[in-house]
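Sanity check

After download, print the first record. It should look like this:
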Amino acid sequence: HNYSITSELEKLNELKEKLRARIPVSQEFEANFSQICFTNQVTKQKKLVQYILARFDAHHASGVPVDYERMTIEHVGPQNAGGRQSVKGTRIGMLGNLILVDGELNAKLANKDFATKKKLLASSKAWVDPYLSNASTWNNREVDTRTKELAKAAYKTIWKI
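Expected structure tokens:
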């Protein structure tokens, strides 16, 4: 009987080692993380984006259960800001420009400017990471930096293997 338990443990350890060998290095993870995109025009990865943002939210949650199916993806730098577009091109849909909020807050945020969105987020129950809450402006550079920060947190904390 001991032989079968030992054998099973060896098989599990072997599987664990095979899986560890497939884990990407952090730079590869970060590069792939920055390729994830969601906009009204690019919807293919919407479920993946929702899943990632929900995992971040759940990791930082206060214990109150959240129905993530009812949450919506908000673009911090709006998709349709008219002539005052601060986030441009593909960065609009990058994870660094996205947060998960409930429908009511999403409607309030709409296409408002960053300062207004920041105030609304601060007074809401939505989880906002320190990089976003400490930002004073919001443009492509901030989106790039926040995307990298989220990728590092995802790699080291959220999906630590």
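If your output differs, re-run the checksum step. Summary of this record's structure: Helices lie at 2-22, 26-33, 46-59, 103-109, 114-122, 130-134, 140-158.
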